[in-house]
User: Fold these one by one.
Assistant:
Number 1:
Amino acid sequence: MDAHPGRSYAFPVSCPGGALAINWIFISIIGYILLQLLVCFAVMRRMNDEQDYLLAGRRLGMPMIAMTIFATWFGAEACIGAAGIIYDEGLSGSRADPFGYALCIFFLGLFFARKLWQRKITTLADFYRQRYGPQVEKLGVLLLVPASVFWAAAQILAFGHVLTSISTLQLDIAIAFAAIIVITYTALGGLLADAVSDIIQGTVLIIGLVVIFVVVMADMPDTSVLAEALSPERLSFRGQGESWMGVINSWSIPFIGSLFAAELVTRMLASRSPQVARNGALLGGMIYLIVGLMPATLGLLGPALMPGLEDGEQILPMLAQTHLHTVAYIMFIGALMSAILSTVDSALLNAGALVSHNIVVPMLGSTNEHLKVRYARISVVSFGVIAWVLARGAESVYSLVEESSAFGSAGIFTCCLMGLTQNRGGQVTAMSSMLAGIISYGVLAFVVKYEYAYLMSLVCALLTFFLLMWFESEPVQAQEPITQPIA
């Protein structure tokens, strides 16, 4: 997920070996993409019903859960963006990547993974229907879907930029090509194809980052020149002159704003058992933190390794361009591509699942499993096309994504937290809390221009729930039947 989505990511336009090397990189990337499509077609034959398509039949074991959580969450911004912001600001810029999001994954796995799995739900919106009623389910979909679509659009745009940097393709053509590839293998293969691809993409991502980290650290200059880069100011998690209110606000967005992110919850629900859901999340969070520390460390040492960069986000591409030979550079580009692909397919599948399962299927009253899968695929393709259209308006997408990570998530967090931990509060309480979070954030962020808009929207959502829950008990909702998970 994007810690700093308003920042545009800088990709290298040349590489070791010149034009010939760029051709080999492009050929390698095309081969890598074809491998993803082969995985998709192989998995398609195992699609029998909606559960297979949306939750991989609830058969995923702990290694696959851990890797798909890591790969889904570790986008291009966790490489380029995190290294860049730490280059510019020191560790005070690293609250989201890797520390905030790793803490978020740990917390969800430790305290809520079992409870969510035991609900036998298919999407996060199902929880709202079970716990609060159908109207809250629909409002939850309206809050969850836009962030996924905008995020997918930004990742498709980043994919297009990578393609243009290693080929002669124009940006519009590269974006269209990226959208077609992602839409195809996500729509056809569902979550199982997504999870299998995440293992491939996550492995390539880890190898690529390990290569650049080891090579750069082996070429490290005399340690005396690192003193300025490791000054107390740069090692502090609190920026110079920053208030404690600002520190709390900046930590709350990645941690609270993403704690019940639908893409993350889906991985819990696809687990083979509640124990797998819990342990897979803990292992995935550990992998995220360890791997995320590599670009973070290079960003921290960046002023000594590459002093004077106007744009801190150039640090990782510039280090790769300077230190890596062609084969290693191809692995680095593969790591960036993997980070992008593993994020965008999850975002599109999540948006499609929410709309098809919680809106379209109930509205049409369909009980045919093949039709349910078809509706889900149509939804994924539709949102993929919308993401492609948004990606073509790059500047507007970046500004929208910047707000989508915070807009509405205060109410989502509040209703999930309270619904999973106590029995008071029903439909009116939950809807009021969600609306309080949305309205307060909109007014404070866009009208008042308040610096701590997200933190205050969270306070408004929590207070609304606390005030109303005493007057409304939990509605009785039937648990949805589910087939026994395959061991």
Number 2:
Amino acid sequence: MPKKNKPILPWQDLMRIGLGQLNLSSSQFWNMTPKEFKCAIEGKLNGFIGNGQQSPLSKSNLEKLMKKFPDKS
């Protein structure tokens, strides 16, 4: 019985993420570069922090922001 070749990339999984989770159109999905797709996934999973890391806002940083941008009343 001949071996069934596995695809180089898991296309079904990639399409499920791109079309399902990222809500890309078919055209958008197929026109993305692998790097763009990776960034889109990271953005969805990690938020929009440049280094791909998301951490909670510290109390001191919150206080700095509150001083810089006070509520107008």
Number 3:
Amino acid sequence: MGSNRRQGEFRRALLRDRQYQVKHIRRDGANITGAWAKKYLASLKLHFKIVGMYIPRLLEASLKQALKTFPAVVVTGPRQAGKSTLVQTVSGKRYAYVSLDELDIRSLAIHDPRGFLAKYPPPVIIDEIQHAPELLSYLKAMIDRDRKAGRWILTGSQAFPLMRNISESLAGRVAVMTLYPFALSEMNRNLRMTLKSAPEFIRHLNSAQKVSGKFLPCGRWLLRGGYPRVFVEPDISLKLWFSSYLQTYIDRDVRGNIKSANLNEFERFVKLLASRTAQELNYSSLAGDVGVTVPTIKSWVSFLEASALIYLLYPYHKNFGKRIIKSPKCYFMDTALVCYLVGLQDENHLLSSPMAGALFETACVTQFVKRFTAFLDPASLYFWRSIDGFEVDLLVEVSGKIFPIEFKLSSTITERHASSLQTWLKLTGQRSKEGLIVSTSEQTGLVGRHVQNCHYSVL
């Protein structure tokens, strides 16, 4: 009992003053000893390592603006995307921080919400809010009494139940934002914050004539993805990290939201879906391969989408005189997770595999999703494919104008690679004819009439 009490005190002290506690453990290890203390000390070392090399995020500007506008801001996104680090960095020392991952703190929030909110008054960051949805109705009452901006920052990983509770309790009172794993521009530390709109960004890609002398090699980018810890720790075991990540996701997010009898089928479904990234969703095929019903597959896809692990890209709605495909395409938001799920373990294996092109397309499409989401850009994203096989990988629609983009995992781009874009431009009859290829070729510039090639590193 005494040991449990000391551990609870230690957890709370860690939240109050991390640096002091590191020194305290080293100076007086006899007070709190054993594997538990070593584990927390190791996690603190990692915390200081990440904070010490903090990498600016695209979402920062929108988050700062939201804090000046709304009483509460919610930051959701997949686990380990950097939500806690982002909100603590942006908010600075003015905000207190409390995590509902701590069992005793969570218990207080669930069983005595008023007591919890009195103990942790605003401005405060409440991390992992999904553990205590009971708090939201009490926050609503407090917001209605005082609508001063920037009082609460809430973070949560279980977007599916969390968003349902927020829509019921805090509709119109809260700004909701999504943080994904690192975008390539964040990893390159070149955010191009002045390019805030989709047209500005695409025109920048069209005019990018030079490739930076230093850029992340394509194989490494696809294999390691954008999860912050994987990025800042080059020696980390990808197999061990993603194995633990997937197990945590299933234990904390999936279990309780689907029937426990289906957990094995769910894991098999995720692996099958990963092998089909950048492909059209075929619910019937997945249902047959997994051995469950089509409605079950659809509910699982919706759950992964709500968890921000996948993105569904829908077909463009106009047919231009051709019969078109109507099913969405599915993209995983992180290619490293796909590589783990399908068993790709090194760069050479990845780049020579049949999935290389799909992984490159996945990585590129999700860059647009991450950037436009961070800037709250109103651009709509689609793909286009006719029944006879004519396809454009990505259409970016803004104010009635459409920018067509193709992705090619090739170091040699010729005019034949531009044929689909040229056909699209001719088919649609757009006055402003701008087509773009994103590839691994360093030979940038015009590759066909109205079509430019740019290197993936400028994304």
Number 4:
Amino acid sequence: MVKGGRPIPKLTADKVNPGDRVRLRSGGPLMTIHSISGDNVDCQWFTLDGELRSATFPIYMLMVIEGAADTSD
């Protein structure tokens, strides 16, 4: 996948850790990795209403967001 003219590297399980901030490659909310099992990543995030959500994604669907700031107050 190319974004802004640069390829987005594909993730592998050895390149992410619980606590890393990620986003779906197609966009969406900023999520925190809760756990990793093989090539599946359990993520958690808060909705705009403050509701905690979680889901499991194949690692190829995610990209790490470096230096993501927490904007919640």
